[in-house]
Amino acid sequence: MNIQLEKMKQRQECERRKRIAEEKHKEWVQKKREEERRERERKLSKEMAEKATKELEKMQLQEKAEVKYKEWLKKKRAEEAEKKKKEKEKEKEREAELQEKKARSEKIFKEWLHNARNKPRPVLNGYGFPRGKSTGLYFCYTTVVT
């Protein structure tokens, strides 16, 4: 009976140890699952944070590029306006020079015309105009020697 009692105690002890081992295993598995879940959540939150950071950087970069583009466009338009202004000034200068040249030419022409009217005419003493009067047509005959 002692042996049976001893065997029974051993069996109970074995079963108790088995239960404890199973419970510990279940706890370990549960802890492991919890740890893995936390790790997944941590990775996911890290990825989300990185993604949000990248999006923010992208938006900042885009805003910066937009600001630079607007500055460039403003500068370009200012340059074009300055170029047009210079072209208009040159055109005005050309027109003024042309007008001045035209006025000078007209003045010189009027002076010449005034002087030409008042200038004495040359006396026509030449062939066919003895004493300034026309006497008719004179023909010049040449002899051909053969």
Automatic annotation (TrEMBL):
Residue ranges of domain Coiled-coil in the record: 4-135
Listed InterPro entries: CCDC34 (IPR045323), CCDC34/181 (IPR025259)
Signal peptide as annotated in the record: none
Superkingdom in the source lineage: Eukaryota
Residues covered by region (Disordered): 1-57, 78-102
Full protein name: Coiled-coil domain-containing protein
Lineage summary: Eukaryota, Metazoa, Chordata, Craniata, Vertebrata
